[in-house]
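Researcher: Structure for this, please.
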Amino acid sequence: MPNRLRIATMNCENLFSRPRIFQSNRSKELLGYVDELNDELHKAVFDHQRIQKLEDKLAGYAEVIDVRGRHETATGAADWLGWVELKRARQSDAAVENTARVLADIDADVMCLCEVENRPLLQRFHDALMYPGFLVPAGKTAYGYLMLLDGNDPREIDVAVMSRHPIDWMRSHMYERTQYLGKTVPLFSRDCLEVQLRLSFGPSLTVLLNHLKSMGYNDPADPKSDKRRRAQAERVVEIADAYDLTSDLLVVAGDLNSDPGSWSVAPLIQHPHLYNVVLKLPAAERGTYRTETRQLDYLLVSDRLKERLANVHIERRGAFAKSKWQPYPTVTGRATAASDHCAVVAEFQF
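Model: Predicted structure, token format:
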């Protein structure tokens, strides 16, 4: 019986923790207390009674991070080191639940994710929500290997992998630099995370996870960030070409933030040994972003994987659309959608 290998990619958009204070109907009042507590902790002489009352009022919403444990006994601001920090809320809203629903229904052996805040949060998402709430009821297997490295985006928009196959090694490319509009900047906006997975039935699988520069927050000299993305795409090709794409199992996965006809991602799309798996679908069904007309999310596979490609589909039920397709009943609008991006799913037979 052939072995199945299912690989998928999805820009989750919502795997982030949120300050709990903004979920309260008293958020304006509580933020006032935060501001007052911050002011008290900057005074030359502390009013300890007032500080304690404010900490009590903010219990569960904010806390004093005290590096040396001295603010409770310090005379004033000069005698301690720390700050006030908002506590983060657990993931429990409808959009995050729909993300778990999508990923569980996809049931990929290797799941490539964009826009994940950090590894502990991803682990909690899996252990507390996705596994007990969606995988177990469907009789599906947990993900034993979840990995993320903090990349270059200061908003903590990172790429991550969830795998049922062991991770043998990983290599980050976040420290690489390039010249861009006269400045030296990080080459990758997030990272190109190179991951090698050990398959139980054959050779290793290498995944290059990417989330290339978006078309937002741009320099006027590069209004759509095409030059920045082009340099990133060219470097991903260099990394991929270090492998034998005619015999090695390799996939470039993630949100490339450009459609297949774009100059910025042409080095990847036009590579003779990297195949865009959605080409297996009718042209009208290849879109992955919002209205189904634009492809921004990709699985580009090496020749050997292309030979084994058995099935491709785009999982759309987690995205909201009024008439294009039927979403999950729990997706009632964009606020409850798993993402604006649909997942690309490919199945290979060995």
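Researcher: Any notable elements?
Model: The radius of gyration is 23 Å. The first strand starts at residue 4 and ends at 15.
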